[in-house]
Amino acid sequence: MNHQDLIAYCQQDWEEYTEHDFVNQLATGDLNKYAFFHYLKQDYLFLKHYARAYALAIFKSSTLAEMREPLPGLSALLESEMNHHIEYCQTWGLSADEMEAEPEDFGTVCYTRYVLDTGSAGDRTDLFTALAPCAIGYAVVGQRLEKWAETKLEGNPYRSWVELYAGEEYQSGVEETIRRLDDMLEEIPLESKRGQRLCEIFKTATRMEVAFWEQGMQAAQ
Amino acid sequence: MNHQDLIAYCQQDWEEYTEHDFVNQLATGDLNKYAFFHYLKQDYLFLKHYARAYALAIFKSSTLAEMREPLPGLSALLESEMNHHIEYCQTWGLSADEMEAEPEDFGTVCYTRYVLDTGSAGDRTDLFTALAPCAIGYAVVGQRLEKWAETKLEGNPYRSWVELYAGEEYQSGVEETIRRLDDMLEEIPLESKRGQRLCEIFKTATRMEVAFWEQGMQAAQ
Amino acid sequence: MNHQDLIAYCQQDWEEYTEHDFVNQLATGDLNKYAFFHYLKQDYLFLKHYARAYALAIFKSSTLAEMREPLPGLSALLESEMNHHIEYCQTWGLSADEMEAEPEDFGTVCYTRYVLDTGSAGDRTDLFTALAPCAIGYAVVGQRLEKWAETKLEGNPYRSWVELYAGEEYQSGVEETIRRLDDMLEEIPLESKRGQRLCEIFKTATRMEVAFWEQGMQAAQ
Amino acid sequence: MNHQDLIAYCQQDWEEYTEHDFVNQLATGDLNKYAFFHYLKQDYLFLKHYARAYALAIFKSSTLAEMREPLPGLSALLESEMNHHIEYCQTWGLSADEMEAEPEDFGTVCYTRYVLDTGSAGDRTDLFTALAPCAIGYAVVGQRLEKWAETKLEGNPYRSWVELYAGEEYQSGVEETIRRLDDMLEEIPLESKRGQRLCEIFKTATRMEVAFWEQGMQAAQ
Prior knowledge:
thiamine biosynthesis (chains A, B, C, D); Thiamine_Salvage_TenA (chains A, B, C, D); Thiaminase-2/PQQC (chains A, B, C, D); Heme Oxygenase, Chain A; thiaminase activity (chains A, B, C, D); globular; Aminopyrimidine aminohydrolase (chains A, B, C, D)
């Protein structure tokens, strides 16, 4: 099996996630500012647990090569990306103190802890399968919005968000992630119990991503 | 510190949880039937992960005495309570197949995975602190509803739910749980970093319990 | 693949383990009494971590059926077997206090922590593969010693040890364990990366069992 | 409590570890070459699991500051130290292939899996306490050998080993490690159950370090 099988197994949830109003409204520039602020603050909390998941992947590795794979991502997260995130939020007037004081919302807890528990209970392949909807989904969203007729970059306050995920750097990073995932999945038959279990993990993680968009929308109501 | 300190740290969240409309409407008999059905189906999925948390507590024990403490609860869950739950649901017309086919809703994922990840990342005391709002909260709800002026047991379709948690057996079980938790907390000063961290865990788990009630209410809308 | 493939992969280590002088000398009655005492005391410490491994298996289960499988073994260990072990040791003049005061020897740490770490890092199948040499090996030892020409049960102080593992109850319990392991392994091709990794786990756990016999022998020197 | 309490709790084991013949013979230059080769090959396998323990510490962190602490050590291990180790071994005529083909010996399994299981079952403080004998002990060995009357650096084939651990860079790194450990231990009373449990962890890990030296000595026999 490969990552396409995972997506096909939960096509409807996948579309709900990658074609969600939240990202469409980012592309048209119509997203409520407070929905975006909520998303930014929660995304910061999300990144902490995302880094924990990468560390868990190193703990769960058998070979030195496996241990080395998640390291650049983990280093980038802890050494630069979380700081960049704070800086970006400051351009929106959100202070570092405000970020730190923010309690985790339900959608953030849902997705992050689902990934971490799935990784703790399962093996490295289970963990990377639970992490996959995040990386792959944002790349799909980026590609789609770039070509979408209704996307309006000129004067769009969320332009840099769209450009980040549609951009070459992010897209090629995800291609590498997909290649590694497909390597892990290669010897697992889709119809095996193991294959079906991985499909269920991917599907549930995809549903939790929807909860993450939803909480942003609800924050603005 | 003891369990009272944990509750006092998040008094407002605690009240939101233990005085939630969901349980008040159970006591008056006014709860929407579909809200209750949703709750029942999700509670079944919840119990599976609750049993996993008890097993994790055994894994995390140092002494034989510590290992033996969670065993009766774990055995009861896997050997009888989950079957009783299915039987009770059948009295409401929910089949076992329907229970099995139910996908986990967001509130269920939130609470269960938060507990399990907190337990995996922390030690046995962290785990039992994350589990505490469930047991203690249901006992507080039971006591409160039993005395509440608006509670109406006669002809109330949810009567057995109220009586279960107000009942002697459940209440004395929780007293034992509290005694053990207080033993674990006894040597930890409330104002220490460790004490404050445990307060944060209890508070977050309490907020996740609110999400669990909320998802029941939302299901009926 | 199945359990026979695991054994075949490490045939030499397997024989070193199941045909070790320690068990041969139990069968002939020639084992040094202090070697046996050391073994008994360490086996008690071993059982604690063995129970932790069973609890970990429940934590790592996806379905209710999977969660229920290790429960009877876990309950038996914590509720009766550890007490029986203490009683048996008392017939040899080893007091419960002596058992409790015994520090874990290296071979005990090797085997138990290898199993637990392999289970934590991997999934349920990795865990049961690491546990397999213990159950299967003792059954093989029991069968072999029962038929061995040099086995001398009459007047042998270790007779009950040999009879326990050669006995119907232990043998049929292991048959069930093997059946479950083979079910888990069924869909994994021996030559896959996953299959080879499981072979390495089984081989290392088998080598750690040898360390467990060795430490008994060394204690008597 | 602080790290001195941990050492004082197991003074005899600590001396057996830090004044072991293995390191004394390194300082006098008398160590059997094959004992050293065995040590080098096992140390390479040790480093892999040491890196896994650092990753586990990141997984087990609550704050961003906690997550960042083990990262430089983890990066250094995976990006440079393991390669340097291979290069150093090559100067002794041990090929990279030989390193990879080496099975883990019992002492290596003992120490590494004890640390990892203690960390999995406990919290971040338990994990760092189990890791502490390694870092602190090597610094103590380095200091002692540097001043020891019988140490002979001139013409000693193991000179670089002694100089590495006696050197400024290693010593100041360990001072930082000790400062962090003492911060974690500061609010835990030595006589509390938690304090005594940490003493037991440190003692057992120290005993496992002895097993690591021992296996080197035995390999030369």
